[in-house]
Design goal:
The protein is built from 14 helices and eight strands. The protein is α+β, with helices and mostly antiparallel strands. A hairpin with a 5-residue loop joins β1 and β2. The chain is elongated. The model is unreliable at 122-126 (pLDDT under 50). The strands form two sheets. Strands 2-1-5-6-3-8 form a six-stranded mixed beta sheet, with helices on both faces. It has a two-stranded antiparallel ribbon with strand order 4-7. Among the domains are: 20-63 and 132-187 and 231-292, no CATH class; 326-392, no CATH class.
Amino acid sequence: MSWFPTTLAPSDPSWSFSAVGLLAVIGGSTIEKYKQPITASFLGGFPRILPAPTTLVAPDRPARLPSIPDVTILGVYSGNKFTELNYFADVIHNIGSLAPYEFRVYNIEYTGDIEKRDSKLGGPGNQFVSVPVRLLCPLNFVTVISIAMTAGLLIWAGVIHDGVALVGLGTMALSTSTACLSSLWYPKLSHRAAGAGVPPGDIVMKTRGGAFVVVHCPEEITRELYGGMDTCHYAFNGRPHQLLLASSTILLMAAIIFLSNAGRTMQIAIGVAYIILNMLYWAIAVLTSEKQTWDMRRYNVELVKDKPSGQSNYTETLSYAIQETGEIDWVVNGGLAPSTKYWMGWLNEAKANCNNPNWDGVAAKDRWMDLAKNEQSKASKEGAVQRETSSSS
């Protein structure tokens, strides 16, 4: 068999188009989910075949990691207020898994010699915080399989003298490599450089469904995970980024043409390889979480309390959060309770009973609401009497 076809005529061997090119671009949704970890991994620049490589050649790159909307974050002592949850904070809490009116309490502290580790990421006076991809994670495991499969297919194409498949695999692998390099990045978290004393960084999070999460942590951790903005620091910018992106696009177009005209044996082998890789990436997208991908060992996270929603309501869950924090200013600051004198009375009572485990917040709220109802009814009656008196006179 010759290395390359020599004619466009339908006689064998001839140029043709098949489904291999389609298999190479299917699977965009699963790759999109892990696009940022793929390009942040140290294995990202290795040449290999990857399902839907077009996902990686987008000209626009995000300036920050995706945040979780509809989450109110309130500083217990600082008075800060935020309306979205940062990406790495959600990696820890998985806020979307909370049921309505669920209540959790976390203690988060640093682990190990953080100052020494931070200095490795930046020079003196230019330190910053980064969260790397785990060395041993499902994503890197699938990447190693992809590299091995690519090497095996290249060797096989050489053994059977299929030059078209050899060139197609080589260009596709290089296209993936340059695409990953064009978006090579690492996360950059906000870092509190000042050494002045500050109050504790405890925060309370409230979801749209009425779940509450109390986090006890230093102000430095609050700045890194909740208050600051986790940005994307790219290795290549400007002209180098554009050249890598253009090279990847050209190589990808050439690869699809070559792979579509490879020999029958290699087309079957390449097609099976893409099917296997699509299944593997789909599996890690469905069966694993971001916590298994990112190395969050910088933080020692302890789940102290976890009260399922059960028969709870908003008032009961709010009372749990007040008892845990011992403060009510964050409730007022966040507008988490109506601004009436009766609710203010309930809040003050809740604060006064922070150390009373037998205090029933719901019963206390009903008592205050009955008082409001009775006073309103009394005021209505007095108003009616005054109107009757005025009309008779």
